[in-house]
Amino acid sequence: MTRIWVFQNTYPPVLWSKDEPYDHHSDPADAVAGIADGATILVGGFGMAGMPTTLVDALIHQGATDLTIVSNNAGNGDTGLAALLAAGRVAKVVCSFPRQADSYVFDELYRAGKVDLEVVPQGNLAERMRAAGAGIGAFFCPTAVGTPLAEGKETRTIDGRDYVLEYPIRGDVALIGAWRADTVGNLLYRKTARNFGPVMATAAALTIVEVASVVDAGAIDPETVVTPGIYVDRVLNLSAMSDATKEAS
Amino acid sequence: MTTAVDVTVEHLDRGPLDRDELAAMVASGIPPGSYVNLGIGQPTTVAEHLDPDAGIVLHTENGMLGMGGQAFGDAVDADLTNAGKIPVTETAGASYFHHADSFAMMRGGHLDVCVLGAFQVSRHGDLANWHTGAPDAIPAVGGAMDLAIGAKRVYVMMNLFAKDGSAKLVPQCTYPLTGLRCVSRVYTEVATFEIDSAAGEVHVLATFGIAVSELSERIGFELVAR
């Protein structure tokens, strides 16, 4: 499998905004360009809070298939991740909570054997990605000891307590929704929409972020930066998208 | 943290607790000043019964301390929800953090109490609440396994008897486990229990509309009255 990241690890991050006018239909398309078939994609959000819906829609248009999606949930309703699943582009879902009142797209595919599922306790999901981003080879965790989700895994007793060995989850790509970026890629989030964003940003080879607005470098107080720009490769500025682009995506 | 009830109290002059009374009972068992996580579903309703002056701070695993009540109308903000994805509000002194921090807080033993629902609890405090094990069921664990082993005290809130009359407090869980020996206390419509997991003993704190002797008979093992 060939993976070519045209804009990977650029400084400053590649930015799509009104200052760098791209063909308005191609804005979100450019942001997800180069994502390969078979890629593992970390998708931020908890339910819809922090969900990068524009990027996920762009990924559907982009066409990459045979994907492994790592996200807390497995899609809601008919849009976003559910639409990606419905389009038959997802081979496997790694998540903590696939089953929801409106997760019927995933439910049907799973019951038909058309998508694999790895259920991961929510804290392990976060910590396994944190480990990937922090260069940790594996870690012993007390979660799931003695349960079916620890079957077949290495265990160890440390200071009288039992732990399960857990391995990192790395992404080829992370798609994240944040609130505000500056022109060097520093990120702020809003309220509980922060959730998996800061962790996933560290855990992928290519981190793509959609934000409500972009400000100049220096306009975000350095003391308040949540995700430093070193982790961010591409930024899609939603407020700079034309109405036509929003319609199209 | 103290156990408020030293002697078993049988309330035989009344019927079982209704859902509101049960939620209030759980709330009354949470010490002032606690950091608390309330699980999705029925445990969420405990928040309505907490004393606003008790200084209890609510944690939600999607990255917040100082969660307020449900948001309605203009107060609804799509970026501010609880673990059940229901819009909520923030209280003065609230803070936000990412998921890895939120669960580190849990696993690191910083939360005082969590309240969870359950399919079954064993006399040793084993918890089963994430999966029925039915072949066509789609497994979904969420944060339950992390909460079960992370909080200092795990309270379970459930009906003691299933629809078919079988007890959900059992010698050994038959449903897939969420956590081993993790439940401290069980609140049900007919009785409240404190679990001594090492001894495998279930101590009755109070009963509602039923005697301890009859409860022991229906559950199928000897409960400890004190």
Description:
The complex is a heterodimer of chains A (249) and B (226). Chain A is α/β, with parallel strands linked by helices and 249 residues long. Chain A has a single domain (21-240), classed as Glutaconate Coenzyme A-transferase (3-Layer(aba) Sandwich). Chain A is 22% helix and 24% strand. In chain A, a hairpin with a 4-residue loop joins strand 10 (180-182) and strand 11. Chain A is globular, with a radius of gyration of 18 Å. The model of chain A is unreliable at 1-8 and 18-26 (pLDDT under 50). Chain B has a single domain, classed as Glutaconate Coenzyme A-transferase. Chain B contains 4 helices and 14 strands. Chain B has helices at residues 19-28, 99-107, 144-150, 212-219; strands spanning 9-11, 35-38, 57-60, 64-70, 88-96, 113-116, 120-122, 127-128, 153-157, 169-170, 183-187, 191-196, 201-208, 224-225. In chain B, the strands form 2 sheets. In chain B, strands 1, 2, 3, 4, 5, 6, 9, 11, 12, 13 and 14 form an 11-stranded mixed sheet that branches. The radius of gyration of chain B is 17 Å and the shape is globular. In chain B, 46% of the residues are buried. The chains are: A alpha/beta (249), B alpha/beta (226). Chain A binds chain B through residues 46-50, 96-100, 106-107, 110-111, 117, 119-127, 129-130, 141-149, 179, 189-199, 226, and chain B through 60-64, 77-81, 85, 90, 96-100, 102-104, 106-107, 126, 131, 136, 138-146, 149-150, 176-180.
By CATH, the superfamily of chain B comes out as: Glutaconate Coenzyme A-transferase
- Our count of helices of chain A gives 7
* First-to-last CA distance of chain B: 19 Å
Architecture of chain A in CATH?
Answer: 3-Layer(aba) Sandwich
CATH superfamily of chain A: Glutaconate Coenzyme A-transferase
Overall geometry of chain A:
globular
Q: Major β-sheet of chain B, in short?
A: 11 strands, mixed
Instruction: Please tell me how large the radius of gyration of chain A is.
Output: 18 Å
